[in-house]
Amino acid sequence: MIGIVTAWRAVAAIFILNGALFGIWASRIPAVRDHLNLSHEALGYGLLFMAAGAVCSFPVTGRLTDRFGAVAITRVIAVLYTLSLILLAVADGFWALAGFLFVFGAFHGSMDVAMNAWAAEVEQAYDKPVMSSFHAMWSLGAGLGALSGYGAVQVGLTVMQHFLLAGGVVVVLALALSWVKWTSRRAASHSGGVFALPSGALILVGFTALCGALGEGAVADWSAIFLRDVTGAVESVAALGYAVFSVTMVAFRLAGGFAITRFGPVATARFGGICAALGVFGVVSASEAGLALVGFALMGIGYAVIMPLAFSRAANDPNVPPGQAIASVATLGYGGLLIGPPLIGILAEMLTLRLAFMVLLPLAVLIVLLSGALRPASLD
User: Fold this and answer.
1) Domain 4-379 = CATH 1.20.120.450
2) Contacts (Cβ under 8 Å, ≥6 apart) of 359
3) pTM value?
4) At what angle do helices 265-284 and 256-263 cross, to 10 degrees?
5) Nearest alpha carbon to residue 180 among 349, 359, 357, 14
6) Where is this protein primarily located (predicted)?
7) Model confidence over 48-106: pLDDT tens digits?
8) Comparing C-alpha atoms, which of 31, 68, 4 is closest to residue 149?
């Protein structure tokens, strides 16, 4: 077995890759929407295909991860996920974009399950809460991906040029840094159904993850459009919305291990829910871009540790194999991450984009109410 620090670096590189590819895509959504002349509603329905792809991939990946090991599955999917990003740049209409988003979402969801299973193995080897630090690396990657969008706009790169350059660089670096010897555990996974759904104590864990991830997904795909259409920000400033969100999320995820050790997972999650609620209120009440950016920053703090805590709880469940447990929580958790954007789009068409963001407020309150589900199984 390799050194534990080297193992952390390897998994961190994979999380950065996953986040960067998502951030690269999120930063150019306004450009893709304008190129295809899509309405808020049409974009929302298109993003729903991304959610469907992810949800369909969870049970398959969970079983493959338990059978062949998290490391092997993670590396294969990392390459496929990068290639699927390029497909998004060649879409010439709504249905082409929807189909490519389904593929992109499937590989995004698959990689989430596999890399979190690998991260759980390293966390158990550390014997202290480090899952939050891996998710900090995801946010760091997402922020860098979003900033690459800002740079691409400034120098006049097309979406295809941006995706090829940024995606190619990040996948090569990530795979090089993660190419270490690590023996993943394997377990017999129950057959399950078409979808990986949580059961028992994992149901509330999944719903807590859903509330946090739905808000995270809404910010990822709609912050740029919110800043441009609602507050009147120029495109370069609008691209900073997700970057600001990601930076604060990185900071609090890096501090998450200390917070969880010092105050416990339940109190840390409750604090996150309160910050998320304050952030949502700040965004929807903002009259100009600066105030909205402050709200997005608070939302980054609020959602930071919810998913890491949910995956740690799932991976250590005494009754379900890790891959299957993570896949079941991911169905609700990352299902929320991907269902959030189309939900916002549909509500924006019915109401306004500002009012559509209001749906995130009661979900933030639910995080506070459901946070007890994130207590480790050993403490139940």
Assistant:
1) no
2) 343, 344, 347
3) 0.78
4) 130
5) 14
6) membrane
7) 898 889 888 888 888 888 888 888 899 999 999 999 999 999 999 999 999 999 999 99
8) 31
